[in-house]
Amino acid sequence: MAAVVGAVLAARFGKWSSSRARSAGAIAAALVASTLVMAPVTSWAMISDTRASHRLSAREAERIGPEGNDLDTSLIDHVRELIPRDASYAVTFSDRLDPDRASVFRVWSLSALLPRMAVTDLPSSDWIVSWGVAPADLDLAITDVHTIDPRRQSDPPVYVARIVR
User: Fold this and answer.
1) E strand or H helix that includes residue 118
2) What is the pTM of this model?
């Protein structure tokens, strides 16, 4: 299809006397041809994605991003049950975790734990959420330590602990 459109347009542009006009016409022909060729593929992808997402429940649609990145979102659900709504928390990770998965965990916690306040400084937070690092290893005075075991055996546990003030 692209070749046919390109040939027709090139024949038309070939009649132009200026080489600059022919170059501009060739570029325009290439752009038009690529757009015409990709339009059906793009339309099919959009329709396919719309059909697939229409079948998702609200809960599945909300979690498709983090779960598509191999994050067990139920871990954050358990954390939400432990940390009071008006508290602050800081997140830390084991060096053994894949940095991309740790980033997905951090981003998901930022929205899933609202209205709790995320902070970056561990000692200034009310609670610590630690994936793969035991809170006792953080050199902070802590209490109310909870361990949340992940579904995947290859993942380390998530620890939740309250900072003693």
Assistant:
1) strand 117-118
2) 0.64
CA distances from 109 to 5, 28, 133 (A): 50, 47, 17
**What tokens were used for 25?**
């016409």
Query: Quick one: tokens of 132?
Result: 């793969």
Could you give the CA distance from residue 119 to residue 148 in angstroms, rounded to a whole number? 21
- Is residue 95 within 8 A of residue 69, CB to CB? The reply is no
Task: Give the max Cα distance, the chain.
Answer: 83
**Does 114 score more than 80 pLDDT?**
yes
Give the percent of the chain with pLDDT over 90: 34
Distance CA 10, CA 2 (A): 12
- Helix axis angle for 19-54 and 2-13, nearest 10°, is 160
Answer left, alpha or beta for residue 36, where phi above 0 means left and psi between -120 and 50 means alpha: alpha
- Does the bond joining 115 to the residue before it have cis omega, within 30 degrees of 0? yes
What does the alpha-carbon distance between residue 133 and residue 142 come to, in Å, rounded to a whole number? 14
Which residue in the block uniquely carries the two structure tokens 């965990």? 105
Cα separation, 78 vs 159, in Å, equals 10
**Quick one: how far is CA 98 from the chain centroid?**
14
Distance CA 34, CA 97 (A): 42
